[in-house]
Amino acid sequence: MALFGSEGLYCYDAGGKLLWKQDLGLLDAGWFYDPDYQWGTASSPIIYKNMVIVQCDVQKNSFIAAYDLNGGRRLWTTPREEIPSWGTPTVYEGKTRTEIITNATRAVRGYDPMTGKELWKLTGNPEVTATTPVAALDLIFICNSYRPNQPIYAIRPGASGDISLKTGETSNNFVAWSLQRGGTYMPTPVVYGEFLYTCGNSGVLTVYKPKTGERLYQQRIGDKGGAYSASPVAADGKVYFASEDGDVFVVKAGPKYELLAANPMGEVMMATPAISDGMIFVRGQNTLFCIADQRAKSSAGK
After folding, report:
1. Which residue, of 80, 177, 195, 209, is most buried by count of CB atoms within 10 Å of its CB?
2. Contact criterion met (CB below 8 Å) for 187 and 228
3. Burial class of 298 by CB neighbour count within 10 A (0 to 12, 13 to 18, 19+)
4. Per DSSP, what are the bridge partners of residue 11?
5. What distance in Å separates the CA atoms of residue 182 and residue 124, rounded to the nearest whole number?
6. Which residues pair with 136 in a beta bridge?
7. Helix (H/G/I), strand (E/B), else coil: 300
8. For residue 297, is pLDDT > 80?
9. Model pTM?
């Protein structure tokens, strides 16, 4: 599946053959204060059961919709009172129900994936939202940073209606904990093991206990400044951070900061690395890298 903004939604088979496409209309996701600023769309489609779900927050007539994987027929669409946002929705499969979680400026929202009905909403985000919700440990984590605040929310699933915090509150029945400082702008956080890792655009790594929000440490990655757009990824007891300055830093997972390696790749990196079958795929400005040990390479070649 691929969403190419105003060009539409496209479905291909594994061999690259186009199976179907859907015209989603004009998706103008520029700066809402000045339509001449054309930032483009960034939200990716997600697949749940027999559906592909898209979040289209634009200048006018924002919506979330689901399409049948077999043929592209639209199954449902729900209008959203939203201005442009750039995050991808997340599916949370809980013990009692499944929810689609969306991050956006006017509200974080939960939806019924089968009908598109809005289940709950949480207001309090800044003007621009670009990160993707993260579901782990029976919580949903929202992380943003723009004026006027930098919130982190840990939300319990199963809510109904408006669960927004009142003035002075940091938690309620469905917000397990929250902070108004410390959120991140571009990199989506990651929960790995019993820890929540956030990476700011300037490369400041902060680690929390995800159940309580207790901060365990804060450290500038590699002890130097930098720029980060890619989200951290984790595997094999390590957390990986790809910087725009061309380095992939490897930090030991855990409650204390320990830098294991700094790997210069020689290119600007803005895309999030991907990990599969013992291999790490890193996309630079001009090159796609695959890093693996000999055992993973031998297995992949069979």
Report:
1. 80
2. yes
3. exposed
4. 20
5. 14
6. 139
7. helix
8. no
9. 0.93
